[in-house]
Amino acid sequence: MQGLYIHIPFCTHICTYCDFVKTMARENKKRRYVDALIKALNKIEAQTFDTVHIGGGTPSCLDHALLGRVIETAIKVAKHPKEVAIECNPNDITIEKAEMFKTLGINRVTLGVQTFNGRQLKALNRSHQSADVKSAFSILRSVGLDNIAVDLIFALPGQTLEDLKVDLHQLIELAPRHISTYELIFEPHTVLYYNYQRGRVNPTDQDAAAQMYEMIVETLTEASYKHYEISNFAKDDHVSLHNLLVWQDEDYIGVGAGAHSKVGNTRYGNTRSIEGYINAIDNNESPRAFTEKHEGIRDAMIMGLRLNEGVHVPTLNKKYHTNLFKAYPAIKQKMTEGLLVFENNRLMLSNRGRLLGNLVFEIF
Amino acid sequence: MNKSMNMKAIESRQKRIRNFSIIAHIDHGKSTLADRILEYTKSITAREMREQLLDSMDLERERGITIKLNAVEIHHEHTDGETYIFHLIDTPGHVDFTYEVSRSLAACEGALLVVDAAQGIEAQTLANVYLALDNDLEIIPVINKIDLPSADVDKVKKDIEDIIGLDTEDAVLISAKEGLGIEEVMNQIVEKVPAPKGDPSAPLQALVFDSFYDPYRGIIPSIRIVEGTLQNGDIIKMMSSGKTFEVNEIGVTTPKREPRDYLGPGDVGYLVASIKNATDVRVGDTITRKSPSATAPLPGYRKLNPMVFCGLFPIDSDDYPDLREALEKLQLNDASLIFEPENSQALGFGFRCGFLGMLHMEIMQARIDREFDIGLIATAPSVIYHVHKNDGTMIKVDNPVNMPEVQDIESIEEPYVEATLMTPKEYVGNIMELCQQKRGEFKTMNYIGETRVQVVYHIPLLEIVYDFFDKLKSHSKGYASLDYTFDGYRESKLVKMDILINGETVDALSVIAHRDFAYHRGKAICEKLKDLIPRHMFEVPIQAALSNKIIARSTVRALRKNVLAKCYGGDVSRKKKLLEKQKEGKRRMKSVGNVDVPQEAFLSVLSLDD
User: Fold this and answer.
1) B265 vs B76, B192, B268, CA distance in Å?
2) Chain A to chain B, count of Cβ pairs less than 8 Å apart?
3) Closest CA of chain B from A314, distance in Å
4) Second label for B49, Cα 20 to 30 Å away, from A152, A221, B174, B401?
C-alpha cells in the first residue's frame, strides 16, 4: 500500500487555531504554486498509489481551473487509486465544484465543519456558517458524492458538554460516513496561542476534555459509528484509507510545502516556505527541509496503537526481526496498569489506555 | 635576606604603591569604572580585557554581581613624572561575603566609594563603607552616571555627608560609561591614598585575602605583603594552622600571572607553594616565614562558618560519585563550602552542604549544574538550631531530619540576624509589614536625607533564607536593599513538620517552622505540591503533619487524559517530539515510592505565596 498526499497551503480566512502551512495568497501565487505542484507530481517516478489525499490549508479555495489541474494530475500519477479524497470548506461547495469533483474522479470529500455553534465558529474565524454545512451535504449528494467525511473540533473555549452534545446530534442527523473529532490544541504561532498568552482565552480543563471525549465515543458508537482510531469514527467501514495506511506503517509521499513523506526507512519533510518550495521545484532542486530515519518499530507502535484494533504482533515481529515483548518489557507493566490489552495476537490500547495513550507511546 | 634584594629599590617602589578597592552597590558601575581605569593605563588591551571578562564566571555577568576577580597590578604615569603602581583589589559584592570583603579591604589603604548619581546610597554600600572605615581606609567619593537625566549630584553628595560623614567637596564626578572624569579619579588615587607602610626588614607578615585553584599548581593564595619581604624558595608558615610550605613561585597579576623575584611591603601578588588542600589557605590568615617568624598574626582573622545548609542529591543516583568530585573541586576554590555525605530515604545518597548564605548556595548549585552537568535536587535550606534536650545536653541540628523526638526536647534556639534595610520612604510601610510577617523585631528607624529610610530589625535567619530577598524586592519594586549580620541565638517555639506524599513521609521535605505559622505553612506547602506534582494514574494525597498529627492536606487528582487527539497528518516527527518532551520531563523527576516528584517540589517550602 502506498499513499499520495498533496498540500494546498491556501485559505480565504486564517483560522485562529491552525498551525499548518497556509496563507491568504493572490491568484498569481496560487498559479505558480500549482504549476510547481504539477511539475513535482509529474516527476514522481513510475509508481502506483492506492490513495490520493488533497489537504491543506483549504484545497477548495483554489479556483476551478487550478483545482481541476491538481486533481487530474494527481489521479493520473497515482494510476487507478482506490480512494481520492479532498478537504473542503463547507461554504466552498458549489454545484459546479461538486460536479467537477465527480467528473474528475474524487470519491471522498472531507468537510471542515468543526462545530455548528455560530459563536464558536466566529471565535475560530471559520469562514462558513452552520447552514452552509447542510447545503454542502445536499449539493454533494445531488451529484452522487455520498462518501462525505466530517472534521469536528471539541474542547473549544467556553464549550460545555451540552454544546458538544448539540454539535454531535446535528452531525449525526446529516449522517456523514466518517467523523474525525479533534481536540482543540493551543499551538504556538497561532492567533489562539497569542490570545492565550495574553490571558484572553484559556484551554479547556483536561478533565472536562476527557469527559467530552468519552461522550463523543459513547454518542457516536450508539449512532452506529465504529470507533477505529483514537480520533476517528466510520460508518459501514468507510474508514479513511489514506490515514489508515499512515497508521499502519505503510509508505506515503507528500507533495507541496510542508508535506511529509515516509518511504521505506526514511522520513522527510518539505520546506514550510511556499516561495521556497516554488523556487526549489522551478530550479529542479529538492524541496526537502529535513530527512530522518524511520525508527522502525518505534514509529510503527506509536502510529499503530492509535488504531483500536492495535498492531498484529507476529506480523510486526517478522517485519522488524524482533520480539516485541522482549524488546519492550515495559509493555507488560502497561498491561498490568490496564492501559494495554493483548488479545488474538494483537496488542491494543484499552478504553482507559486510549485516553492515556501518551503514557503508552512513551515506552517505545 | 638575599643579597640581590636592593632595599633602596624596595623602599622606592613602596612609596609609589597605591592599594585600593572599589566599593559600590550592584549596577552602580564598579565593573565599568574598573574597565575604564584599566583602559586608561593601557594595562591590558581591549582584547585581553574581553578575555578576562570571558574568563570570569558566566554567573557573575548574569547576576550583575562580582563574586571574585583577581587583584590587578596597574602602572600609572602621574603628572609628577613618576610611575605609580596601582593594585586594584576587587571585592565580592554581596552580603553573603561580608567577611571576604573585609579581608580584601584590609589589603588596601584606600577605597573608591562609587555611588550612582540617580540612585543614592544602598544598604550594602553603606555596610562596606563602614568596613572600609573600620580598616582605616582613605575613602574617595566618586559619583557616577552624572550624564543620566535623572542624576541628582547635590542630593547624593548630601546623602554621603549626612549618612557617612565624608567630606564631598572633592568628590569626583564621572560617567564611567562615557569615560568622563577618569583622569581625576587617577589623580586622587595618587594624591589621597597613602603609600603602604611596612618595614621590609621586619619578619614577614602577608595577608591572605583570596585564593584560586590551579589544577597543576594547587591552591594559589592572593596575598598582600604587610611587613617584610617574600622570595622564591622561602619556607612559609600559615599562622592559623602552623602548616609550612616551600614557595616555588611568587609574582603579580597583570591580569596574567607574572613571576617576580621578590615581593616587598605593600606589594599585592600571589604565591605558588604546592598547596593541595583548600582548607590550608584561609582567607584572612597571615603567612609568615618559618624563620624568622612574626610574633603575631595580622588582626581580624576569623574562620568562616557556614550559616545556611541544604541537602544536594543527584537526580540520577549514578551521578553520586560525580557530585562528590564536583563538590571537592568547588571546595578547592572555596574553602567556605563544606559538605558531608547524607542519606535520604526519599532521595537516596547525597550531601549535606553548608554555605555562607543564600546567594552562595544558589551560585554553587548553579555551578554544579552548569560546569559539571549534574542534575540536582536541593532540599529547602536550613539554619543551625541549638536543641536543648531533656537530659541537659545540647545538640546542633542543621537538618530537620535529625531533629530529636518532641518528647525529648526541652527547648530550641535559632540564629537571629540584625538586618539593616534601606528603602525609599514610600515603601517603608510595606517593608515593616514584611519584617513583622517574618517574625522580625523592630529596632530602629532613621531618615537618611529626605527620601530614604534605614530600618533595623532583628529577624530569625530562617526567615531570611526562605523567600525574604524576593519578598523584599517585590514589596519595594526592587528599590530596597538589605545587609545583615549574625546576632546570636534565641529560644523559639519551633516544630518539625513532615510532609507525606501518598501516605509516605518524604524526609527530604521535612521543615522546621515556627509553631504559630506551622498550620499556615503546611497548608501552603500542600497546595503548592498539589500544583507541582504531576497527575498520576492514581490519586495522590499530600499531607502535612506535626508529630503524626495531620494539620493540612491536598490531593493530586488521578490523570484522566493524556493523548494526542489532534490531526497531525503524516507529521510523525512532531508526535515524537512531544513524546520526547514528556519523557525528558519525567527524567527530571525523582520517584518517591511510586510517585514522580519534580525537582522544584523539594524547594516548594520556599517562596510560598502568603
Assistant:
1) 19, 19, 9
2) 88
3) 23
4) B174
Cite the residue boundaries of each domain of chain B with CATH code 3.30.70.2570.
495-603
The contacts of residue B294 (CB under 8 Å, 6+ apart) are B202, B203, B204, B205, B227, B228, B239, B286, B288
Residue B58 pLDDT > 60, yes or no? no
Question: Per-residue confidence at B381, pLDDT binned at 50, 70, 90?
Answer: confident
pLDDT in tens, A280-289: 999 999 999 9
Q: Which residues of chain B are within 8 Å of residue A361 when distances are taken between CB atoms?
A: 575, 579
Which of A245, A334, A356 is the best mutation test for B, with the most CBs of B within 10 A? A356
B609, burial (CB in 10 Å: exposed 0-12, middle 13-18, buried 19+): exposed
pLDDT digits (tens, 9 = 90+) for B488-526: 999 999 999 999 999 999 988 998 999 998 998 899 899
pTM of the predicted protein model:
0.65
526-545 in B: which are within 8 Å (CB) of A? Answer: 537
Which residues have C-beta within 8 Å of that of residue A361, sequence separation ≥ 6?
A301, A302, A305, B575, B579
B205-289 has which CATH code? 2.40.30.10
Task: List every span in chain B annotated with CATH 3.30.70.870.
Answer: 308-378
Angstroms from B563 CA to nearest CA on chain A? 5
3-state SS string for A202-260: CCCCHHHHHHHHHHHHHHHHHCCCEEEECCEEECCCCCCHHHHHHHCCCEEEEECCCCE
Residues 6+ apart with CB under 8 A from B559: A356, A359, B534, B535, B536, B537
A302 touches chain B (CB under 8 A): yes
Count how many residues are written for chain B: 610
CA distance A229 to chain B (A): 10
Residues in chain A: 364
pLDDT at B61: 47
Report the pLDDT value the prediction gives residue B64, as an integer from 0 to 100.
42
CATH architecture of B308-378: 2-Layer Sandwich (3.30)
Q: Is the pLDDT of residue B7 over 90?
A: no
In this structure, CATH architecture of domain B495-603: 2-Layer Sandwich (3.30)
Exposure pattern of B82-120 as b/e (b: 16+ CB <10 Å)?
eebbbbbbbbbbbbbbbbbbbbbbbbbbbbbbbbbbbbb
- pLDDT (tens digit, 9 = 90+) per residue, A52-99? 999 988 999 999 999 999 999 999 999 999 999 999 999 999 999 999
A-interface mutation test, from B536, B563, B564, B568, most A Cβ less than 10 A away: B563
| Yes or no: domain B385-492 corresponds to CATH 3.30.70.240 | yes
Instruction: Decide if B562 and A359 are in contact by the 8 Å CB cutoff.
Output: yes
CATH number given to B17-192: 3.40.50.300
Residue contact A269–B566, C-beta within 8 A: no
Judged by a CB distance cut-off of 8 A, whether residue B558 touches chain A is no
Report how far residue B88's alpha carbon sits from residue B39's, in angstroms, rounded to the nearest whole number: 13
| Residue listed under C-alpha cell 504554486 | A33
Domain with CATH 3.40.50.300 in chain B: 17-192
CA dihedral B340, B345, B347, B348 (to 10 degrees): 60
